[in-house]
Design brief:
heterodimer; A: 227 residues; alpha+beta; 2 domains; 6-stranded mixed sheet; 3 helices; 35% helix; 21% strand; B: 221 residues; 70% helix; 2% strand
C-alpha cells in the first residue's frame, strides 16, 4: 500500500516539475521571439556606432556592414591560427575605396589581450583607433581607453589619428622608450607599447594587402598566402 | 509581520551584505565604483521583487521535495526574460546594467529570500520583502563602492555620464591625488567591507547600550 503511495507521489512530483519546466521554457521562448527583432536592430546600430568612433559617417556612403571580407587569422593582426577570422569592413564613397575598418588584437597587454578597432584610409593613413576591450590595471594602464583616460581634452590614443603609414617608418611604431615615435605615460608603458606595436602591425597589413582587400567580392574569405 | 517591519529587517537588521554576508561575489566584484555598484543593486531589487512575488503566488503548487529546483527554474527564467526585455526595449539602460543582470542569477540572496520568506508568505508581502532586501544591498554597495572609488582614485560617481547624460564625475580629493590602487583591487574590497561591518556592529552596540541605560532612568517615572 505504502509502496503504491510512494510511486504515486513520485509520479505526481515529476509531473509538476515537468509542467513548471515546460511553462517557463515556453515563457522564455516567447520572450526571445518577441524581443529578437528589436535586439538585432540595436546590435546593428551599436556596431555602426563603434565603427563611427573610428570612421566618421560622412566619409562613406555604402552599406558598410554588408560590404566585408573575412580574413583568415594572421600574426599581423595579433591572432594565432586557431582564432576566428577577422571581418574587414570596406567603406566606399561613390564606389571608390574610402577606408578599411577591422579589429586587431594586441596580444601582449599587461592583463592579456587588448582588442582594437582600426580604420585605415585608402591612402594608408590611420583614420582612427579605439580600444574595444581590455583587462589592463584600472587607474594605471587603462588610459589606453579614452573613456578611462583622465586627460579628456587630448586622450592618449588620439595621437595616432591621421598618422600616415608612409610617414612613420615601421621602426617608428613603438613607444618613445623603445626608440619609437609615440608617447606613453611614465610607470605604465606596457599597455601603451602593446597598443602601439599592434597599430603598426595592422597598418602594415592594410598597406600590404590594400588592393586585394578592396577588390575581393563582398562577403568572401581571404585565406593566408600560399594556401 | 507588517510592511514597516519587513523594510527595517531588509535594510538594517538582516542586511544581506553586512549581516547575512550573502551574495558576496557580485558585491565585492562590482563595487569598484559607486555607479557600478548601485546599478547592479538596482537591477537586483527588481529581480528579487519579481522572483519573490512569482514564487509566492505559485507556492501552493510546489511540492516540498522539489521546491529548490523549481525556485531555481523560476529565478533563472525570470532573469533571462528581464535580460531580453531590457535589451530590446530599454537599450540605453541595458548598456549600463546589461553585464550585471546575468550575474544576479548566481546571487544567492535571491534564492535565500525565496526559500526563507517568499515560499511562506503572500505575493505582495513577499515582493515587498524581496525589494527591501535589495534596498539593503543598494545602501551597502553604495557606501562600499563610494569609499573604494574615493580612496582609490579621489573621484566620486565616475561613469555617471553613462546613466545620466550631461553629468560628470566629482573630483573630491585634489586633482594631484596619486590614487591608492589597493582600494580598487579585490583586497581593498574585503578590507573596506570589513570596516563597514565593524562600523555597523558598533552602531548597533551603541544603540543597545543606550537602550539599556535609558530603561532604569525611565523606570521611576
Amino acid at each position: 500500500m505504502t509502496e503504491q503511495n510512494a510511486a504515486r507521489v513520485s509520479l505526481r512530483t515529476a509531473a509538476i516539475l515537468t509542467l513548471f519546466t515546460v511553462l517557463f521554457t515556453t515563457l522564455m521562448a516567447a520572450t526571445y521571439q518577441a524581443t529578437k527583432p528589436a535586439i538585432e536592430a540595436s546590435a546593428e546600430a551599436e556596431k555602426l556606432k563603434l565603427v563611427g568612433e573610428v570612421l566618421p559617417a560622412p566619409l562613406y556612403d555604402n552599406a558598410l556592414l554588408a560590404d566585408y571580407v573575412d580574413v583568415a587569422p594572421r600574426a599581423e593582426l595579433g591572432l594565432a591560427a586557431q582564432d576566428d577570422t577577422v571581418r574587414v569592413l570596406r567603406a566606399r564613397r561613390a564606389g571608390a575605396p574610402a577606408a578599411l575598418v577591422f579589429e586587431a588584437v594586441a596580444p601582449d597587454g599587461y592583463g592579456g589581450k587588448i582588442r582594437l578597432i582600426i580604420a585605415v584610409g585608402a591612402d594608408n593613413r590611420l583614420i582612427g583607433v579605439r580600444v574595444v576591450s581590455h583587462k589592463e590595471t584600472p587607474g594605471l594602464g587603462d588610459y589606453i581607453d579614452p573613456k578611462k583616460d583622465r586627460n579628456k581634452s587630448a586622450p592618449w590614443i588620439r595621437q595616432f589619428d591621421a598618422t600616415g603609414f608612409g610617414e612613420v617608418p615601421i621602426a617608428g611604431w613603438k613607444v618613445k622608450k623603445d626608440g619609437g615615435r609615440f608617447d606613453a605615460r611614465a610607470g605604465a608603458t606596457i599597455s601603451a607599447r602593446a597598443v602601439t606595436n599592434a597599430v603598426g602591425r595592422a597598418l602594415q597589413f592594410a598597406a600590404d594587402h590594400r588592393d586585394k582587400l578592396y577588390a575581393l567580392p563582398a562577403q568572401s574569405v581571404m585565406e593566408k598566402e600560399g594556401q | 509581520m507588517n510592511y514597516r517591519e519587513i523594510a527595517h529587517n531588509g535594510v538594517w537588521k538582516q542586511n544581506t551584505s553586512l549581516v547575512q554576508l550573502l551574495g558576496l561575489c557580485p558585491l565585492l566584484a562590482v563595487s569598484t565604483t559607486f555607479v557600478n555598484g548601485v546599478s547592479l543593486a538596482i537591477a537586483t531589487i527588481f529581480v528579487m521583487a519579481l522572483a519573490s512575488g512569482v514564487v509566492a503566488s505559485v507556492r501552493s503548487f510546489i511540492p516540498r521535495e522539489i521546491r529548490i529546483p523549481v525556485f531555481i527554474l523560476i529565478i533563472a527564467a525570470l532573469v533571462t526574460m528581464v535580460d531580453l526585455a531590457m535589451n530590446a526595449w530599454l537599450h540605453e539602460l541595458y548598456l549600463v546594467l546589461g553585464i550585471f543582470i546575468p550575474l544576479i542569477v548566481v546571487n544567492c540572496i535571491v534564492l535565500a529570500r525565496v526559500e526563507a520568506f517568499a515560499a511562506k508568505n503572500t505575493p505582495l508581502v513577499a515582493a515587498w520583502d524581496g525589494a527591501m532586501m535589495g534596498v539593503g544591498m543598494v545602501a551597502a554597495i553604495a557606501v562600499l563602492g563610494g569609499l573604494r572609488e574615493l580612496i582609490g582614485t579621489g573621484l566620486l560617481f565616475s561613469g555617471i555620464e553613462m546613466v545620466i547624460p550631461g553629468t560628470r564625475a566629482l573630483q573630491v580629493l585634489p586633482a594631484d591625488y596619486p590614487g591608492f590602487l589597493v582600494a580598487i583591487l579585490p583586497p581593498g574590497a574585503f578590507l573596506v567591507l570589513g570596516f563597514l561591518i565593524a562600523g555597523r556592529n558598533w552602531l548597533d552596540a551603541r544603540a543597545a547600550q543606550r537602550a539599556r541605560l535609558a530603561v532604569p532612568a525611565q523606570a521611576p517615572a
